[in-house]
Amino acid sequence: MSTIAGNIAQVEARIRAAAEAVQRDVTSIHLLAVSKTKPASALREAYAAGIRDFGENYLQEARAKQAQLTDLPLSWHFIGPIQSNKTREIAEHFAWVHSVDRLKIAQRLSEQRPADLPPLNICIQVNVSGEASKSGCTPEDLPALAAAIQALPRLTLRGLMAIPEPTEVRAEQDAAFAKVRSLQDSLNMGLDTLSMGMSHDLESAIAQGATWVRIGTALFGARDYGQA
Ligand SMILES: *Cc1c(COP(=O)(O)O)cnc(C)c1O
Hints:
Bound molecules: pyridoxal-5'-phosphate
Strand content: 15-25%
Distance between the termini: 26 Å
Number of strands: 8
Shape: globular
Radius of gyration: 17 Å
């Protein structure tokens, strides 16, 4: 078994154990492999071990990998900060965007989503860590943003995404993810997706209702930004 295949088996075992611990159906939890800085060969290995969904943060890097992997039926998720001049390529080449935090970006994605593709799946990134985080809409702005995005024709609003301030303290992880869950509940829009949980905190995220966990390091090893 390759290292990546072994890592995938370990992460899948962590997901199963976390789901069992809170009596959740494991099939409601999806694994997004976060492949930023990793070469196309690593994604190919992950594909061979059963992964179909890949998350990328940087558009040019993602497009280069997509060009090398056209032979595989992959589903691409954009999870990084979005500049308005990048929306067209994102709308054309991804199935999901997890990191929408303002209306202008959502409007552009909707306008630019090609007619021959299904609506683009959207999560609103919400900031539950206050000043510690620059990305994400505030909890106060969330209801109006969610209503406006839901009205856009070429997008399907699926749910919320969050990247809480990193902490190894389980109670603090739980509190942050529970806040995301409660913000989603108070929207009362029937949204089915909570994108939360990374390598170090997926157990807490699953306990609080995550439906996508976004895992990089635990699958592909540490990232070397010096080489990226
Ligand atoms: C890099 C990244 C991840 C993966 O983080 P790991 O700690 O490597 O699992 C998840 N979500 C987002 C938005 C990221 O940028």
